[in-house]
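User: I've been trying to design a sequence by hand for this structure and keep getting stuck. Would you show me what you'd pick, starting by listing the structure so we're on the same page?

Assistant: Good idea, let's start from the same input. This is the structure you sent:
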């Protein structure tokens, strides 16, 4: 199978399959649940909580969100995939079109650049997402209100964007994934109101990282969060992010 041989602290890791098992969003709780697997050895579950549930969603919004969350499932999975670098990717629930598969191959390859250098790996040609001829991502046209979400990371870019938008007629709110002190202080000072998402990475991955049993390195966090912000725009009726 032309396996990638990976060595962590002198031990060889051989993993064949990485499974994108399932993705589910609860309108009642606002929780997005993403499940992954590595061979028959590990199962990982990641959860994203969108506040202000329950949500009342129109059929159009449900359709749009189902498509966004199917893609977010792939983006979020990079944190678990890179820990093992299995040879083969298996999509259990949602299929990808040709263009989507090629996009995520580049998303993973380019997004794991620092990771590859740190671990002395050549990932060129190794990351291959399966393509389904029957996969279809139908456009959904939503008439979202003239409003915006401003992502806040606690730095200069967020503050500058907030102050520039205050000079326009575009109503806006701030949004963040968790709100440690710098982010919370920035959002409070804006006076715009805020939405704070909660991301729960599977604690099993943290333990494996701490014990040095898996590969570690950076992931494309801004790219990952972009999918969650895309979903947030639909959930909270904002035309722009």
């Amino acid at each position: 199978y032309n396996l990638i041989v990976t060595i962590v602290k002198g031990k060889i890791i051989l993993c064949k399959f990485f499974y994108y098992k399932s993705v589910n969003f609860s309108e009642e709780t606002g929780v997005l649940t993403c499940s992954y697997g590595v061979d028959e050895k590990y199962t990982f579950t990641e959860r994203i909580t969108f506040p202000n549930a329950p949500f009342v969603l129109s059929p159009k919004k449900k359709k749009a969100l189902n498509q966004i969350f199917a893609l977010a499932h792939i983006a979020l999975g990079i944190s678990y995939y890179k820990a093992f670098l299995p040879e083969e990717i298996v999509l259990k629930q949602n299929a990808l079109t040709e263009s989507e598969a090629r996009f995520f191959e580049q998303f993973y390859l380019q997004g794991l650049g620092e990771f590859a250098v740190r671990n002395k790996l050549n990932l060129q040609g190794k990351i291959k997402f399966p393509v389904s001829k029957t996969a279809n991502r139908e456009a959904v046209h939503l008439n979202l209100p003239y409003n915006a979400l401003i992502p806040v990371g606690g730095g200069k870019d967020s503050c500058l964007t907030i102050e520039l938008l205050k000079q326009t007629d575009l109503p806006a709110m701030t949004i963040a994934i968790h709100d440690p002190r710098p982010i919370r202080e920035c959002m409070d000072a804006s006076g715009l109101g805020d939405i704070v998402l909660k991301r729960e990475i599977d604690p099993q991955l943290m333990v494996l990282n701490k014990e040095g049993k898996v590969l570690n390195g950076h992931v494309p966090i801004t790219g990952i969060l972009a999918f969650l912000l895309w979903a947030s725009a639909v959930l909270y009726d904002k035309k722009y992010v």
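That's my pick for every position. To get oriented when you compare it with your attempt: Strands lie at 6-8, 11-13, 17-25, 31-38, 42-49, 88-91, 148-151, 172-177, 194-200. The longest strand covers residues 17-25.
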